[in-house]
Every structure is written in structure tokens, then in C-alpha cells.
Amino acid sequence: MGEVSLEAVSKQFTIRVDGQEQKVQALKDVSFTVRDGEMVALIGPSGCGKTTALRIVMGLQTPSSGRVAVDGVAIKGCGYDRGIVFQHAELLPWLTAYENVAFALEMKGIKGAELRDTAMRYLELVGLKDSLRRRPYQLSGGMQQRVGIARALAIDPKVLLMDEPFGALDAQTRETMQSELLDIQARTGKTVLFVTHDLDEAILLADRVVIMRQGHVAEIMTVNLPRPRKDGADLRGSQDYADLRYHLWKALHEPAPIGVGH
Predict the structure, then answer these.
(1) Three-class SS string for the chain?
(2) Of 4, 7, 90, 94, whose CB is crowded by the most CB atoms within 10 A?
(3) Is the pLDDT higher at 104 or at 257?
């Protein structure tokens, strides 16, 4: 199981401006659920709170109020039931691809043959069997992200969290990585919650899209496109895809009623 629920989550930050403390409301009564095995995208303008929401789910930040739970159990900080992939892979530069994945397993207490077999299995899953001895500087941006995904998956989390994981990649590599993520999710069945600014990426990957504006959930849009979705070119040429994209674009660019969805 891997269901994530946010219930009336709010987050306030205190910042100093010209020597004066000011309160910033990053999230206000955010509620939604990511069902077991579902891929959900968080999308919205810069500063709308989507990365803050993701970091709260990971346990990197605490909400000012509200509750976040995985399978009904309230989270208390980071845990091995959640893995995260950042926009930049954040690999340890002095370690090889294999060692970066192995390090995460060591932190979980896995040792010996189980560690070696698990690290190799996930490096193979992301197509890096022949690059496991390379260090990050010897890998392309896409390959570094594959290592980051393998590292996050190797600890066998219930939920995979991704913060604009392909945002720093060129267009062609990004499309390749999107297809690979679809394939990985289909094979592992992991629950995935990811942040993106890209409308096409949200529609191509997600089962539902949570549209955020000014710290609120403005709308939750269901993506009624058939799976598997490996051929993005065919999907983008369909009327259903065009309708979804226009609906999403409109929700982001026009005033919309603020609501809460599940």
C-alpha cells in the first residue's frame, strides 16, 4: 500500500524584510489524496506552494497545521516509506553510480549480498547496468537522474516523490526520461507524487493533476487517457489530449474558484 493524504495542511513561514518580521502563507487548508499506485502531478505558478507541499509529505518540513499521512499513519519527519528525487540528482560526487545507490541501502541497514543484489537490480531497472562504475561527472544529466531514481527506489518506499525531476534536462532527454518513468512505474506499481511546471508532462504522466494557486488547491483534474502511454506523439495528436491541455492551461491562467478536492 502507498496512499498519501493531506488534510487541511497549512504552512506559514516567517521572513525578515528590512529588519521586520513578516508572515508568509505558503499553504492554506490544502487537502487531497494520492491513491495507492496512482501518479499525481502538482502544477501551478511559481510560488504557489507545490514544492512546499511535496517537502512536507517527505518530512523535510513540518506543517503549521493539518495532517499528512501515509496509509493512515501520520508522518513524523523523513522515513523509508518515502523516497525523493530532486530536480538535480544530488549525487555524492566522489562515489560511483553503484556506490551512490549502495549508500542509501547502507543507511537503511542493508548489507552484504542483499545490498549488492538490490543495488544492481535497480541500476538495471533504470538502464545503467553498464555504467555502474562511473562517477557523476562521467554521466550525462539524464543518466545522473536515473541514478537518483534508482537510489530512491532501492530503499523500496511506498511513495516516490519527485520535485521537477526532469526540469534541468534538454527536451529530447526529458521526453526519454518521461517514457522511462512511465515504464518504471508500470513495472513497480509505486505511488508517485511529482511537481512540474510543464503542462504536457503533467498530462502525459499523471492519473490526476492537482492545480494549485496561491497556496490553495484550485482544482483536481482527472486525466482520462488510456494506459500505457509510451507513445507521447500519438497522445499529443488526439483531441482528448488537446481538450485536457486547454482545460489545464485555462485553469492556470484565468481566475478560478478556490476549492478542496479528494
Answers:
(1) CCCEEEEEEEEEEEEEECCEEEEEEEEEEEEEEECCCCEEEEECCCCCCHHHHHHHHHCCCCCCEEEEEECCEECCCCCCCEEEECCCCCCCCCCCHHHHHHHHHHHCCCCHHHHHHHHHHHHHHCCCHHHCCCCHHHCCHHHHHHHHHHHHHHCCCCEEEEECCCCCCCHHHHHHHHHHHHHHHHHHCCEEEEECCCHHHHHHHCCEEEEEECCEEEEEEECCCCCCCCCHHHHHCCHHHHHHHHHHHHHHHCCCCCCCCC
(2) 4
(3) 104
